[in-house]
Amino acid sequence: MRPLAGDPAFLPAHVLSMEIGARRLSPVDLVDALLERIRAGDPKLHAFVEVYAEDARLAAEAADKAIRSGHAIGPLHGIPIALKDLIQIEGKVTTGGSEVWRDRQSRCTATLARRLIATGLIVIGKTHTVEFAMGGWGTNQHRGTPWNPWDPTAARTPGGSSSGSGVAVAAGFAPWAIGTDTGGSVRLPASWCGLTGLKTTIGRISTYGILPLSPTLDTPGPMARSVEDAALLYQVMQGPDASDPRTRGVSTSDPLPMLRRGVRGLRLARMPEAEREAVDREVLAAYDAALETLARLGAELVTSDLPCRFVDYTALTARIIGAEGYSLIGDLVDDMSLPIDEAVRPRIAVGRGISARDYLAALRDREEAKRQFSTAFADVDALLTPTTQTAAIPLDTVDQTTTPAHFTRFVNFLDLCALALPNGFTAAGLPISLQIVCRGYDETTALRIGWAYQQASDWHERRPPDIV
């Protein structure tokens, strides 16, 4: 029996699955290794709200016994996973990133969490989020901001709102994690933490039991070290749920049979020339190089015009998030005695000034925009953009009145799906990311394109400086 190759803390989940299945790696040893990394490194990186150390060890022992006795549940049995602190588990505290809810005990378990646990995955803990998931920079004034591990000396934006999930996976605290994405909250931390993150289509994955921000736009998604891992996790996350009406009539989609089919014959659209203006030079260079790689692999690159500028979609998305967010938690942000993040309060409070007429008009505008976009991209398989305009920036330079979601919000607004994955590094060693945008419910194509790209590159295999 050959020895385990590589540090288990940084092995992709699909490799961990093979090693555990072949009994070269015990779930107990894997959980212990991750818990030790968390113990040593999380005081600095601050990825976790709570670590379920004892529960995880018990689950690992049970998984080990089941696997050794021939009673494995499936290929994911015994692999740890981290959950964003919006995903409820009955009896556990779910704060939603808010100091106001620091003792809020969940009365239900999210359908998503139940499905993950049913596959044998081990929940190792809950990860930090921007308060109420309302922000793309990844900061949290009262609960603490996770430290982006790619720069051990200076605090930089981890990306939000799924900041802790991004940092936990990048730092080797968990092989993968779950985030949520309302305007970019899976893809932004994936971009700045050097990960692969999938924004799914509304109705693909149940949001029952996940604290909402904007029910029209909220989507859960996997954050992992590779496209193959993201595909495996996406496969088990999806499915109809009687508790979430939006999942009714949405059939499941298995991405694995199509994953390795390559990109030959696919038509991939560049972003319009005008959209390059505000993008960092190194990000553009990595973007152009990625397009060249996909062209060499056989994809046809085309230029298409967008019905709107990305900035216009960003503003329209903000109107819906503001109105729905305020309807849910406006009473909290209006109470000035409560310790609400000073950057988050005004973002939610915007909804106070949005009338029912304006909100309904925004929903109508959204439907018309979806029709226009569908027509413009009828003969295109995917639109390619950078995920963010820059690499992670120093926290002390963040302008909290702005958003880094320039390239991501339109995906939520138009009911599309998208994959973010590493496509380079800056001269300072910070990750850069490519976004692959596909039609709604076509996650399979986004993953297929991403897998082909990762077979031709090794950006996703790099790891940040080890702080443990």
Describe the structure.
This protein is of the alpha/beta class. It has a single domain, classed as Amidase signature (AS) domain (Amidase signature (AS) enzymes), CATH 3.90.1300. It is built from 13 helices and eleven strands. It has an eleven-stranded mixed beta sheet, with helices on both faces. α4 (about 110-120) links the parallel β2 (about 80-85) and β3 (about 120-125). α2 packs antiparallel against α3. The longest helix is centred in the last third of the chain and has 24 residues, at about 310-335. The radius of gyration is 21 Å and the shape is globular.
Please tell me the total number of domains: 1
Q: Level of helix content?
A: 25-40%
Looking at the structure, what is the overall shape? Answer: globular
Count of DSSP strands: 11
* Mean pLDDT over the residues: 96
CATH level-3 fold name: Amidase signature (AS) enzymes
The spatial strand order of the largest sheet comes to 1-3-2-4-6-5-10-11-9-7-8
Oligomer: single chain
Number of helices: 13
How would you briefly describe this protein structure?
This protein has 468 residues and is α/β, with parallel strands linked by helices. It is built from 13 helices and 11 strands. A hairpin with a 5-residue loop joins strand 10 and strand 11.
